[in-house]
Amino acid sequence: MEFDLIDRIRRHTEVHRDDVVTGIGDDAAVVAVPAGRELAIAVDTLVAGVHFPHGTDAADIGWKALAVNLSDLAAMGATPAWALLALSTPDGDEAFFDGLARGFAELATPYRLALIGGDTTRGPLTVTVAVHGFSAPGEALLRSGARVGDVVMVTGTLGDAAAGLRCLAEADTAPYASLIERLNRPTPRVSAGQALRGIATACIDISDGLVADLGHICAASGVGADIDAPMLPRSSGLLTHFADVDALDFALGGGDDYELCFTVPADRAGEVGATLARLGCGATRIGRIVEGAGVRVLDGDGAAFEPTRAGWNHFVA
Ligand code: ADP
Ligand code: MG
For residue 121, how far is its CA from the centre of ligand 2 (angstroms)? Predict the structure, then answer.
């Protein structure tokens, strides 16, 4: 690929790190893994028309492609270090490369995450990012450690991104800006994940929807989970623009929020709530781990919640 375009990306995303021996510009990047650290590695692909609507702003695409990967590192409790960016675009539009690199760098720079290489090809618009992070041996947060009696918690609020996607169809999207922002510029909960090391028994980031992703914790841990629907944290923006039943539907089944869902021993829930409140995202108790399998959603009276939409229902055991 034209070096000019690669150079544009490099210029926008310059983060200096002593552990990068050779970054962009050689056949492969060379990095020095700190002694006594394990590497957490994740890769995610965003395809135009599938993971973001055609016409999405280039900077938003760059941000989101990195955000979804940092969210995976957050869910492991890992500290971000390096990234690779593989880009396929139908044309070599310089403004698009600049915008994408700018959005990527806006998120990468505060984490001192270095872009150390990638690949650039012509083809349908697809953005793949791979990230590498550090964790101490045995410290990574897994999906498999939830125990009966643990409390289930989530960071932030749920449902905004799915609601934002719905709002894109409106003629005037201005009233829904806060929801659409959550869709286009998700905030990976990196510091929250790090704070949960040694405390959370299991952790996952919510990319497919709460019920689906908590279901992965249940399957990996060999347990079930009961969720109290009225406890689900929902933003004022969501509750302003949507009826309660729709807001619940988005919170239970909507993907793309990139909040963390995790389990902690019941006697540590208060401490975790206070710690994550200090970190800005907060954490809400939404249910508990029980014997059995799968996720049960309960209404305020402890009865099985009756869904009005089919979106998430097939995930319920
Ligand atoms: P090669 O033919 O050896 O794969 P490339 O021309 O694909 O070389 O890449 C040249 C250099 O630019 C490599 O260091 C590669 O990692 C980097 N690079 C290519 N595309 C990107 C990109 N989209 N983002 C970051 N680095 C890139
Ligand atoms: Mg290449």
Answer: 8
Total count of domains within the chain: 2
Between the CA of 158 and the centroid of ligand 2 the distance, in Å, is 38
Angle at which helices 58-76 and 177-184 pack, to 10 degrees? 70
pLDDT computed for residue 314 by the predictor: 38
State the DSSP code for 314: G
Tell me the C-alpha distance between 239 and 248, whole Å: 9
pLDDT score at 309: 54
Contact 31, 20 (CB under 8 A): yes
- Cα dist from 67 to 6, 126, 184, whole Å: 21, 15, 10
Q: Are residues 66 and 177 in the same domain?
A: no
Point out the domain boundary residue: 83, 105, 135: 135
Same domain, 160 and 287: yes
* 125 and 193 assigned to the same domain: no
At how many degrees (to 10) do helices 3-12 and 94-108 cross?
30
Give the number of C-alpha atoms closer than 13 A to the C-alpha of residue 305, restricted to the C-beta side.
25
Higher-confidence position of 122 and 9:
122
CATH code at 288? Answer: 3.90.650.10
Residue nearest to atom 6 of ligand 1 (CA): 1
Ligand located closest to 26 CA: 1
One domain for residues 126 and 55? yes
Please report whether residue 142 resides in a domain.
no
Looking at residue 11, its pLDDT comes to: 84
Ligand 1 lining (C-beta closer than 6 Å): 1, 6, 9, 24-27, 85, 87, 115, 117-120
DSSP 3-state of 188: coil
Name the residue range of residue 162's domain: 151-305
Q: pLDDT band at residue 236, thresholds of 50, 70 and 90?
A: very high
Q: 171 in a domain, yes or no?
A: yes
Distance of alpha carbon 275 from alpha carbon 180, whole angstroms: 28
